Amino acid sequence: MHFANNLKFLRKRRRKSQMDLATELELTRTTLSGYEKNVQPPFPVLIKISEYFNVSLDALIRYKLDVLSEQQLSQIEKGFDVDVTGQKLRLLTISVDNQGKENIEMVPVKAQAGYTNSYGDLDFIAKLPKFKLPFLPENKTYRTFQIQGDSMLPIKEGAWVTCSFVENWTSIKDGKACIVVTKDDGIVFKLVYKRLHEGNFLLVSTNRNYSPYQLPVSQVLEIWQFETVNSFEIENIPE
Question: Taking a C-beta distance cutoff of 8 angstroms, is the pair 167, 222 a contact?
């Protein structure tokens, strides 16, 4: 929980002294000082502080606001919660076999446009080709994507990469190869570098003919971390 640090940060961002803010919140300076030192306020006071700063209770308590960019803070103050971890995006839609074990769905190039619009649609996911890789640990969820282009050599265009789902984006180690599912740029395979304090990721290709670029966190739908390359061909892949 980050309430105490967030309260202090938001107060200073508004350029308020403890006395000034305490007066506006109808509190004593000593009470406010206690809240900034991890004393838990009663729920009605939490609501009052949330409304004063125009920040949701969830953001006020759960997220470290001082690492966010001004753009993200502005979005929060306008009523949008900016999630830099990826954990609030949605429940992952998966398919299972007749024994209840997770399948590895395959997302070919010709299905990728549909995937960005229907990644949460159980019917769409159920229609994707599926297979198993027994050597992979069972404590992760996997998906296989077909690669477009030559930006990630030596992995060639048309290759299939199996990746594990990343629940918490802050856990990604800089320089890890990942499939990034985006709102507007489709599905990309890049080396990922976190710039979460700036509200974005830096995406880098191994092929130096392609320039690195920044992708706003708000554009990211899913991130899948590279695990292995698969060599196979499949026919009659559904659109």
Answer: no
Q: What is the DSSP string of 22-60?
A: HHHTT--HHHHHHHTTTPPPPHHHHHHHHHHHT--HHHH
Q: pLDDT for 167-200, tens place per residue?
A: 888 889 999 999 999 989 999 999 999 988 778 8
**Same-domain check for residues 109 and 179:** yes
How far is it, in rounded angstroms, from Cα 103 to Cα 43? 44
> Omega before 154 cis (within 30°)?
yes
Q: How far apart are CA 19 and CA 171, in angstroms?
A: 39
Q: What's the rounded Cα separation, in Å, for the pair 207 and 172? A: 21
CATH of the domain at 129: 2.10.109.10
Please check whether residue 93 is in contact with residue 127, taking contact to mean a CB–CB distance below 8 angstroms.
no
pTM higher than the cut 0.90: no
- Give per-residue pLDDT as tens, 81-119: 656 666 554 457 888 888 888 999 999 999 999 999 888
Looking at the predicted structure, is the pLDDT value of residue 27 above 50?
Answer: yes
Contact 175, 191 (CB under 8 A): yes
Residue 183 lies in a domain: yes
Residue 115 and residue 61 in one domain? no
Q: Are strands 187-195 and 142-146 parallel, antiparallel or unpaired?
A: unpaired
Residue 43 is part of which domain span?
3-77
